[in-house]
Description:
Elements: H1 2-8, E1 29-31, H2 33-62, H3 71-96, E2 97-99, E3 115-120, E4 123-130, E5 141-143, H4 147-152, E6 160-165, E7 168-178
Parallel strand pairs: 1-2, 4-5
Antiparallel strand pairs: 3-4, 3-7, 6-7
Helix pairs in contact: 2-3
Amino acid sequence: MSKAFVKENGHDEDDVEPAPSALPPGGKNYMTPEGYARLDAELRRLVELERPEVVKTVAWAASNGDRSENGDYIYGKRRLREIDRRVRFLIKRLEAAEIVHSSGRDTDQVFFGAAVRVRGREGEKQIRIVGVDEVDPARGQVSWISPIARALLKAREGDTVTLRSPAGEEPIEIIEVSYP
Length: 180
């Protein structure tokens, strides 16, 4: 479905836009199995459900005649471009993804996929280290390349690490490490 979809829809491989991400140059696109499944489900929904519906609407609107003042046609075409852009982005991200299975680890050391309970100046909080496409600060999911994740990686339960951020340095104590 990936490159074939791009070619079938009038795009060549060079037309696939670069992903606007915070991946380091030449870096890997690590992802949890749940994050991969979420992006794959979004891609399938766009390709199999949403895009065909919008194509029907645009075709109907085009059959009505004058397209210059036809809102259904104009906004439908715009939505198709948005969908196609997102589909190209998702295809590229999923092709580059390296799924990291971290469940079942029996260790107190912090690696990708770990749920870590930490204590800092602002009190205790729970974070999970995930891929750049899975970041959700409201749910405590931070990218593996974020300053806090870099400080925590390879440290162990009971360790105190130094978080270096634009706000300055802060000691962070690792209270618990688990792998959901």
